[in-house]
Design brief:
The chain is of the alpha/beta class. The chain has 15 helices and 19 strands. The chain has two domains: about 1-255, Carbon-nitrogen hydrolase (Nitrilase/N-carbamoyl-D-aminoacid amidohydrolase), CATH 3.60.110; about 270-465, Rossmann fold. Helix content is about 35%, strand content about 20%.
Length: about 550
């Protein structure tokens, strides 16, 4: 039996466009001899549909579109397992279910409802769906095929040290030959190997082959890497492309030699993921060009390089905005970067007159105080206003350039350098920014060497350096990983790292929460990013509150 994994890039809510892609891919698979085709989770809607699901008219339109696809396939000898949404028949609980429809001979032959609904990190499926109650096993070509959806296979007690759910949907399936899983598993660095290890363990445990269809493409802050797989006997036999659409057709009766481990390293994964995040954000919002401030620093340089990869340098615009405190090399480095990348245009506007205007306007009010953070932030807000003006005037999407280290401790100016629609590197710590930038330069100098080698500085005052107010980034990032990702308390972290620095960092994290609530969406590439997966209250006695 030949089977096809339909790995395509859906646009959330585009039922007509997604439906056309599903039909065309299924027809193409049929022409290549496949008799079973599998989409990703909620493929007809695009994942995650979020509160679109609260509109009955949208759900009804999805139902009609699924029936239309079924009718168009009625003369094709192929079974389509389609990810969509549908009404439950329970008469209680939530009215919707996350479904897989078995479509054959022009009709919906069977319906499976997802049984495990994740509510951690970026997931909130219990807000919308009622969990399914029954397994589903169908038969094709003498093979028993068990149908599952994403989380349903992520709860094997033999694989996970602490399963999240009391129920394991695989335990009550009975015997089966093929495990089919419709997935929309968001990308994070290194996650593919975890998926493949898990599927390998399941095939060894059950003796069945596994067909895993995963969504590809970026929707808002979430990035999906595809890489659907065919696994049998603990070995990966076929793998879909990473970060690209693919039609993966496999012949279950003729297994090939096992594939080696996925070859993408962490830097290449990160590069491809962030590039896809930028390109899809623009494409799915009908935007063609972007703009960002170029400071001569590492963060804006890497962001510009990613945007150039995503959209082509001819669609990336830069704005250099020196202040009285900007060094000559910062301007030179920014212009050199623009030339190296071949950006569409890089303009230069001095913010000195703007700062002088602010100083004059505030002179009377500020006359009895010493210059400090308020005056320093005027620089960032002046630049933010200029960037927003150019963005508004020419329709360029404004990219923010802050990294995760800065966002964590509030080393960023709200309504200043935080202005923008998308935070491209907001899930990369500063040390990771440097690492990825050096990877970008592995074959030729793209990011100027001076940008890579000079001490990081926001140039808020003469000779100012980031380390005037922050620990060295190697120290800061190690502490942040303990506090944010390992969920250690400040006291626990202080047993590993310098207590004084640790408590200072924890206090800064706590104080910056209101800024993060107003920040641009962050492209997520780790297990814990700021955004929909970070739900810390602003007004509270936080775990980051340090006892004095």
């Amino acid at each position: 039996m030949k089977c096809a994994l339909l790995q395509f890039n859906p646009k959330v809510g585009d039922l007509a466009g997604n439906g056309a892609k599903i039909f065309n891919l299924t027809q193409k698979a049929w022409k290549k001899g496949a008799t079973l085709a599998v989409t990703s989770e909620l493929a007809l809607l695009g994942y995650p549909p979020r509160d679109l699901l609260l509109y009955p008219s949208f759900v009804e339109e999805a139902r009609l579109k699924a029936l239309e696809i079924a009718q168009k396939l009625k003369d094709k000898d192929i079974t389509l397992i389609l990810g969509t949404v549908g009404q439950t028949e329970l008469g209680r609980g939530r009215a919707l279910a996350n479904q897989a429809l078995v479509i054959a001979s022009g009709a919906i032959e069977a319906v499976y409802a997802k049984r495990l609904l994740p509510t951690y990190d970026v997931f909130d499926e219990a807000r919308y769906f009622e969990p399914g109650q029954k397994p589903l096993v169908i038969e094709r070509s003498g093979q028993k095929i068990a149908i599952t959806i994403c989380e349903d296979i992520w709860n094997d007690e033999a694989f996970w040290p602490r399963p999240l759910y009391a129920l394991d949907p695989l335990s009550d399936l009975g015997p089966f030959d093929i495990l089919v899983n419709l997935s929309a598993s968001p990308f994070s660095v290194g996650k593919q190997q975890l998926r493949e290890n898990m599927l390998a363990a399941l095939t060894q445990k059950t003796g069945a082959q596994a067909l895993y269809a995963n969504q590809v493409g970026a929707n808002d802050e979430l990035i999906f890497d595809g890489r659907g797989v065919w696994v049998a006997g603990g070995q990966v036999l076929a793998r879909g492309q990473a970060f690209a659409e693919d039609l993966l057709i496999v012949d279950l009766a003729n297994p090939p030699e096992p594939l080696p481990q996925d070859a993408l390293g962490p830097e290449e994964e990160t590069w491809e993921a962030l590039s896809l995040g930028v390109s899809d954000y623009c494409a799915k919002n009908n935007l063609k060009t972007v703009i960002l401030g170029l400071s001569g620093g590492i963060d804006s340089a890497l962001t510009a390089a990613i945007a150039s990869k995503a959209l082509g340098p001819e669609n990336v615009y830069g704005l250099v905005m020196p202040s009285p405190h900007s060094s000559d090399h910062s301007v030179y480095d920014a212009l050199a970067l623009s030339k190296n990348l071949g950006l569409a245009q890089t303009s230069q506007i001095s913010i000195t007159p703007i700062m002088m205007g602010f100083d004059a306007a505030l002179k009377r009010l500020f006359q009895n105080s010493k210059p400090g953070v308020a005056e320093e932030n005027i620089q960032a807000r002046s630049r933010g206003s200029l960037l927003m003006a150019v963005s508004n005037k020419f329709g360029h999407l404004l990219l923010t350039t802050g990294n995760k280290s800065e966002i964590s401790v509030g080393y960023c100016t709200i309504y200043g350098d935080m202005c923008g629609a998308l935070a491209v590197i907001g899930d990369l710590y500063k040390t990771e920014v440097f690492r990825l930038a050096r990877w970008v330069n592995r074959e030729k100098i793209v990011i100027p060497e001076n940008t890579l080698n000079k001490p990081p500085s926001a140039e808020l005052r003469p000779d100012q350096k980031d380390q005037d107010s922050l620990p060295p980034y190697e120290v800061l990032d190690a502490i942040l990983k303990c506090l944010l990702e390992e969920r250690l308390s400040p006291k626990e972290t202080a047993k590993i790292h310098d207590p004084k620095i640790t408590f200072k960092v924890a206090t800064l994290i706590r104080a910056a929460e209101f800024k993060r609530r107003q920040a641009a969406p962050v492209l997520k590439i780790t297990g814990q990013a700021f955004g929909v997966g970070w739900r810390m209250p602003i007004s509270c006695r936080s775990v980051f509150t340090v006892n004095k």
